[in-house]
Amino acid sequence: MSSTAVIGLQWGDEGKGKIIDSLTATADMVVRYAGGNNAGHTVYVGDDKYVLHLIPGGILHDKKVNLIGRGLVVNLAALHEEIDGLVARGVPVLERLRIDGRAHLIFPYHCKLDGMVEKWRGSGRIGTTGRGIGPAYADKVARTGIRLIDVLDAEYFKERLNAALAEKDAVMREVYGVEPDSHDDLYETTIEQAAALRDIIVDGGKLIREAYAAGKKVLFEGAQGAMLDLDAGTYPYVTSSWTGIAGIAGGTGFPANKVDRALAVTKAYCTRVGEGPFPSELHGKVGEDLRAAGGEFGATTGRPRRCGWFDAVQARYACEFNGLDGVFITKLDILSGFDEIQVCVAYKLADGTEVTEYPAEGSKLEGVVPIFESLPGWSEDLTAATSLADLPENCINYVRFMQKQMCVPVVSLSVGPGRSQSFECEISEVVNA
Ligand code: GDP
Ligand code: IMO
Ligand code: MG
After folding, report:
1. Alpha carbon of 160 to those of 64, 207, 366, 370: distances in Å?
2. Is residue 416 lining ligand 1, measured as CB closer than 6 Å?
3. For burial by CB atoms within 10 Å, which of 13, 158, 231, 293 has the most?
4. What are the residue ranges spanned by the domains of the chain?
C-alpha cells in the first residue's frame, strides 16, 4: 500500500495531528488537502507541544516532504507566522515544505466578512473560527478568488485584487453598512509574502503522482471531521470544504482511485466546537468532567469544546460514506474513572420513531433524544498501556462494542498525547455478515 488517508471521523479535534505525526515515521510525503488555519493539530514530541494550523503534521520529521495541497485556503500572513514559529524552534521548515500554487488565498477582507456574516446570521450563527474560511471558499466557487500562483504575476494580480477589493468594499458599504478597512499595502505585502515562498511553490498533484509512481508512501492528512463536511455534514453547521476521503482528489490532483487505504480517527467519546446539532451532547456534570479530564479546549480558538458520549449512529454514518478500512481510537485514557460509560445507539425523533440512520434534516436532528446503551467503566490508568493485554477487561469490552457499532476494524488505540502512547491492534468482529 503506498497511499493512506487519515481523516477525522467526528466534528474535528479527534487527535489527527498525533496520529499523522506517528504515521509519518513510515511515510515519505504528508499532504493536507482541505481547510485552512481553522485547523489546529497538536503534536507532542516529549514535553514539547506543537500546534499546526496550515503546515502538515509530518513537518517535525527529517527527510519527509510536506505538501499544502491545492484544496486549502491559505492566509499567507498566518502561514509565515507558522513557518517562523517553527523555524525559531529549530525546524528547517523550508527544506521540508511545499505548497501548491493553485491553492486559494485568504485576504483580510475574508476574515472581516466571516465576522460580518456571522453577526447577520444572528441566532443561526455557525460559530466559525473567524479565519475567513467560508468567504474564501465562496470566492473560489464564485470564481472571484485569487490563487497563490496568480500573485507571482504582479500585473495579473493587481487586476484581480483591484476587482476583488472593489466588489468587497461595495458589499461592506451597501450590504453591511460599514466603512471598509483601508487596504493600505495589501498588494505589496502579498507580493512579498508570495515571493518569499517562490522556491517551494509547486504543482502539487504532479509531485504526489510522481512520488506514488516511484513507490513512495504518501499520507493524506484530513482536517476538521466528517460531520463538518460541506455536503455530508450537519449543514449549515459545517465548514466550507470536503473534509472526507472524497475531498482528496479535488484538493490535491491525486486520482481518487489510487487512495489505497482509507482510515479515520475517532475519540472514545465526542466533542464539537461551535454551533449545530450534537445528539449525544452532555449538558451536566458528566459533560464537564469529560471536558476537564480531556482538556477539551480548542487548539485554534481556545473555545471550550462541547462534550458528549460516543455517538454510534454518527460514527457508522461517517464510516460508511467514507468507505473506511480502519479506525484509530484516541483518548481512551480519558474515560478511566467513569463508573459507567454510555454509547448513543439510536435517536428518538420528535414524533416518537427511533432511527439508527443519521437524518439529513437539520430540524429532525435538533430535537432528537439520544438512546443510550450503558457499559461498565474502569478505574485503571491506561497511559502506560502498550498492548491490548495491558487494558482492563471493561475497557476492551468497550472498544469491542464501539467496533461492532462502526462495522469497521479498529486498527490502533491511543492512550495519551505522547508519540509512544499508542499501539496497533486488530479488533474486527464481523457484523452484518
Ligand atoms: P486534531 O485537530 O484532530 O489534530 O486534534 P487536536 O490537536 O485539536 O485535539 C486533540 C487533543 O488531544 C490534543 O491536545 C492532543 O495532544 C490530545 N490527544 C491526542 N490523542 C490523545 C490520547 O490518546 N489521549 C490524550 N489524553 N490526549 C490525546
Ligand atoms: P481540526 O482540523 C473542530 C468548526 C468551527 C465551526 C465550523 C465552521 O483541528 O479538527 P469555519 O471557521 O471552518 O468556517 O467554522 O467548523 N471547525 C472545527 N472544529 N476542529 C477543527 O479543525 C475545525 N475547523 C472548523 O468551530 O463550528
Ligand atoms: Mg484540532
Report:
1. 35, 28, 42, 50
2. yes
3. 13
4. 2-100+201-262, 105-195, 266-432
First-to-last alpha carbon distance for the chain, in angstroms, is: 26
- As a whole number of angstroms, the distance between CA 270 and CA 93 comes to 33
Statement: the pTM of the whole predicted model exceeds 0.90 = yes
pLDDT at 433 over 50: no
CATH 3.40.440.10 is the classification of domain 2-100+201-262: yes
80 tagged catalytic: no
pLDDT tens for 204-236 read: 999 999 999 999 999 999 999 999 999 999 999
Q: Evaluate if residue 187 carries a pLDDT over 90.
A: yes
Place of cell 493587481: 158
Query: Is 47 assigned a catalytic role?
Result: no
Closest residue to atom 23 of ligand 2, CA basis: 224
Q: Tell the CATH topology of 105-195.
A: Adenylosuccinate Synthetase, subunit A; domain 2 (1.10.300)
Q: Which of 13, 21, 28, 139 is catalytic?
A: 13
Residue 319 CA to ligand 3 center (angstroms) comes to: 20
57 lines ligand 1 (CB under 6 A): no
Backbone region of residue 331 per phi and psi (left: phi > 0; alpha: psi in -120 to 50; beta: other values) = left
Pick the residue whose CA is nearest to atom 18 on ligand 1: 417
233 φ/ψ sector (left φ>0, alpha ψ -120 to 50, else beta)? beta
Q: Does residue 126 line the site of ligand 2, with CB under 6 A?
A: yes
Nearest CA to ligand 1 atom 17: 417
Q: What is the DSSP letter of 171?
A: I
Evaluate: CB of 133 within 6 angstroms of ligand 2.
yes
Per-residue pLDDT at 431:
58
248, pLDDT greater than 60: yes
